[in-house]
Amino acid sequence: MSTLLNRLQHYTENRGIMSNLRCLLVDSKKHRGWPALSRLGIDIKDPVLTTIAGLYATHPENTDKGNFGATCKLIESKRDKPRNDEKLTPTERRFQHLLAAEPGQELFNRTIRMILMAASQGVPVNYRQLEKDLRYWNDRTRADWAASFWTPDTSNEPEEIES
């Protein structure tokens, strides 16, 4: 993954390649991203790597801290009103659906939605950890994300993830 992330970071300012990589996230446009993947030396048949490449092209703010649960918690803190103990916030509901997702396209689609929310809030993503978690999606990964998301704060503000 570090090689993938290094290659993606090298091309961050290349609007053409980034535009083509974003096409990987849309089924009817995936074919537009394949030449860019090839130029980056990314296996076109690896759905996790192609998804990460498309996600990075959509939202290139990267961090080395936290897992995707921590990212989603920060999204929630910026998007939603303070929690009512009786009802889930919209972000909590989306996050629950993400945790319940089956490996493969359902997981990728739900992750894409959360990345778009992160982009709209300027929340960086730990793409190295996300790649590992998507590749080895299991109950432990789900529990790690849930623990990061629902761990009680000692203060009212969640800890910022540095980019």
Average pLDDT figure: 90
Broad shape: globular
The helix count comes to: 9
Sheet having the most strands: none
The count of β-strands is: 0
Query: N- to C-terminal separation?
Result: 18 Å
Residue fraction in strands: under 5%
- By secondary-structure content and strand pairing, the structural class works out as mainly alpha
Radius of gyration from CA coordinates: 16 Å
Unreliable stretches: none
What's the SSE pattern?
HHHHHHHHH
Task: Describe, in short, the structure shown.
With 163 residues, this protein is mainly α. It is 62% helix and 0% strand.
Walkthrough of the structure:
The chain has 163 residues and is mostly helical. The protein has helices spanning 2-10, 15-22, 30-40, 47-58, 68-79, 90-100, 105-121, 127-135, 139-150. Helix 4 packs parallel to helix 7 (105-121) and helix 5 (68-79) crosses helix 7. The model has no long low-confidence stretch (mean pLDDT 90).
Write the layout of secondary structure elements.
Elements: H1 2-10, H2 15-22, H3 30-40, H4 47-58, H5 68-79, H6 90-100, H7 105-121, H8 127-135, H9 139-150
Helix pairs in contact: 2-3, 2-4, 4-7, 4-8, 5-6, 5-7, 5-9, 6-7
Summary keywords:
163 residues; mainly alpha; globular
